[in-house]
Request: fold
Amino acid sequence: MHKNREAGHHDTNSPRFAVVLSDTDNDLASVQYALNVVGVCDKQGAWRTGIRDIRVIHTGDWLNKWNPSAEIVDYFMELSHTAPPSCDLLILNGNHELRILQRAEKGEHPHLGEKRLAFIRSRDLLHVYGKTLFLHGYPTCYLLKFLQQIKNEKKGLNRFNERIRKAFYEGSHALFRKEEGQVLMGNIKKAQHYYREPCQDGEIRGIKISELLKTIGIRTVVHGHRPNIKVQQDNEFNLETPGIRLVNNDNQPKTSLLGAAIVDIKGDVTFVNSREMIWQGGEKKFKNKIRKFLGIET
Reply:
C-alpha cells in the first residue's frame, strides 16, 4: 500500500492546497470531471504525473444510501492507494455512508463485499487542515467541546477520529450508531434556527460555536449535506457565527455538472463551479487559471 495518509492517523505533511468535493452521491463522472478541471487527475480519473502537495478531500455522501455503487468505492480505493508522493486522498463519511453501514449490518448491500465495507468503515468523520475544519454536516456545541478537550490534551485534533472509531466502529457494533452519530456529526435540520437559539447558560449558540472554533484554531468550516442550487454558499451564517467563514460546498454536482472548492492552509477558499467557469471565459481558460493557481502544469 502506498504510504499516503490513512484514516485516523496524524497529518505527517501539510499540502499547499486541499481540493474539496462534497455530496457526489454515486456520480463518478462529476468526481472525475472536477478533479480533471483542477488538473489533479487525467480524463480517465487517474492521478496526473508530477502532481505535488495536493490533498483531495471528500466531505461525505460520496455514495447513494439506497443503492451504493461498488464502482465508486473501487475508484476511491484505487485513488487512495496510488496517490503520488506528498499527495493524498481523504474520504469522510456522511450520513449516507453511515446508513449503508447500518443496513449492511442487517445483511443488506451484499454486492459491496467485506473489503469495500471495510474501506467505508475505516473512513474518518472530520478533518482539520490548517485553520479549516472539514465535516459532512454542521458543527454543534457538543462536537466542538469534544474537539476542545482533545486539543487540550495536545495530541492533535485529528485524534478525534481515533476516539470515535474505538467508541463506535469497534466493539459490539461495527457501525456508527445513528443517534449518537447525528449529534457528533452535527446533523442539524434547521441550522440557522439552531445557531440563533440560546444554550442552557443563555449564550446564543452561534456565538458560542464561534468562540469554540476560534479557541481550537479554526477560522473556516467547509461542509456539505444541505444542497444549494448550482453554486456553493459562502459565509453561510455570517451573522450567526461572527468571525467564522462557514462554507456549504454542496452545489448538487450531479445536476450542476461541476462542483469543488480549493482551500489553502490559511483557510482561504476558491470555488470551482460552472458559474465561475462561465465568468472566466469558458472551460479552457478556467482550467488554465485554476491549474496555474495550484502550480500544476497545463
User: Anything to note?
Assistant: Confidence is low (pLDDT under 50) at residues 1-10, 173-182.
